[in-house]
Amino acid sequence: MEKIKNLTIDVFFRLYIGVNRYKRVIITLFITISLLWGLYVYMVYYHFGFVKSLTYTLGLFAVDAKSPTEINDAFIDTGYTAEMVRDAKEWIAVYWVSLFAKFTLLLTVLLIYIRGVLSNIYRAWIKNRGGHTVVVGLGRNSRFFIESMLEKFPHRVMVFETDKENPYLYRYKNKKLSIILKDVEKIIDKLNLENAENVFISTGSDRKNIYYALHFLKQLQGNRNFGKLLVHIEDRTLRNLYSDKGTLDSHGIDMNVFSFYKESARMLFWKDALDGNDNSIIDGSEAFAINIIGEDDLSVSLVVEAFKLAHYPNGNHLHINVIAKEISPIKDKIEFAFPEMNQIKHIHLNYIELDDKTIDFYNPRAEIWNAINLKHILFSYDDITRNLSVATKVLNYTYLRRKEEVKDIKFHIATLNHKKIAKRIELSTEKNLSVFAKAEDVCSYKNLLDNDIDSMAKMIHYDYSIEESCNKSELESEDDEWNKALINDKKSSIGQAIHIPLKLKYLGLIAEKDSRNLSVQRLIELNIEAIDKSLKNRSLDALIYSEHNRWMALLRLMDYQYSDISQKDKSQRLHPLLKPLCEFSSEEQESYMVYNRNAIFKIATYQARLGNFLKVNSVNP
Hints:
It is a single chain. By secondary structure, the protein is an alpha/beta fold. The protein folds into four domains: about 110 residues, no CATH class; about 130 residues, Rossmann fold (3-Layer(aba) Sandwich); about 180 residues, Rossmann fold (3-Layer(aba) Sandwich); about 170 residues, no CATH class. Helix content is about 50%, strand content about 10%. The protein is built from 27 helices and 16 strands. The strands form four sheets. A six-stranded parallel sheet has the order 3-2-1-4-5-6, with helices on both faces. Helix 2 runs antiparallel to helix 6. The longest helix has 25 residues. It is globular.
């Protein structure tokens, strides 16, 4: 009965939302029909002029017309027969026009004045029903997140916005979202958060986001049914500061502190391999290069993500060329945030000062456009007009007569929140042209709440928890262990997860969704067979080497240093294993190699649990 009740209420509100969304069209249509019908009756039956007909028609919205029964009685009382009454069409026509006009008036009143009451009922229903998502703030990130939520879970979003002048309020009220124009802090204890599924915080101010996140963490603590707390913090210094101090540690809640630019970079290199789509680099030991054009925060995130990923089994070196009019700002940002980055020896960061408004920038003979094995050119200014302008000139001037020569280079344009422009570029006939940093993808439900990277990171973290635990019976569930993990520990597991596609590429394998409904155990067996078979033609030692280099690079980016101590010191950022494998003692190798081997062979389990099977890449075997 409860399900039927909820379904009935759901259908009612869906119908109400649909009607409310098009209320202006509906009201206009009914008023137009009433007026035209009335004009027709008075002009055709009564032969009135237009003005008189309009006056009488407008009167029908307020004046009662006699019903057919009343007309019949009146005519009989004055001596008319029933047959004569039936011929009085004009009286009957006026009655029906009057009835329709009054219905139009009632409908208009209901849609305009009663909607506030229904909105309050609807809001209460969402809150008590559960499974809803609370969104704090109505800025760029929130809007694209809301759009993706409405596609997947319509009518389950509750928005808090303090700015009554926000230009997007009317748009979302029209979509019948539950919008509350109050400071969420003042009513957070009344939100029934035990029934909420997710909370998304993105107000446009990092400090406000942190402030609200702390309040939500306090309210949500101990809620084992809660989904995910998403907190947008763009400023890298603030993110690191609150992560390191433990202020934003999740206290048993699944929390993702995300950055738009960081997510954009991660999504790009998850989809497009750093070394290109073929195997020419990964199968050999040649160096390769990427060009990043721009000095904004997106460029910084691209550099950092490349440093996390570019660790190849054959020791390939990567050259990252950062090209900007003024290099000092971006160089200072990177060096301040990552003082240990220069210790990552096989990745070379080159700063090149060039103004994209000068002819020298586009010179086809310039060294930046002729780098050996150049694989990607990324236009990453925080201004889509500039990205489009520079990319167009590079394609139509710098590389105009070199189409064959540059067929392996991919050009990426950051489109940010410009959805229509992104779509046009994607429909372009240029095969090596693509877009990235698309707000609709970066801030989507799929990316922030339902992505494979986080799912695998959770599995990886649990495996390490098992290996490091003295008493395995004390371990909680996989979700609970992840929820109580420190942010930096989560970063470590995510770092291992995002490197999995590179390892599979080296093995000549790809992961595909299983359509045969095989059990997870059977998929694991098949995936292990695929890895074992690939290792007959590939080097396990080379994979172990790349995994260790990846791990060292991640620790360097987290500001760790080597120290000859017995065990790692998180507070001082010191680690005894932060050195090349060739410098390990036999005892260190014996204990540590287990982790590196697991990082490779457990890919079979992680992919199987995602419903994927590993098969030979027929395009690049």
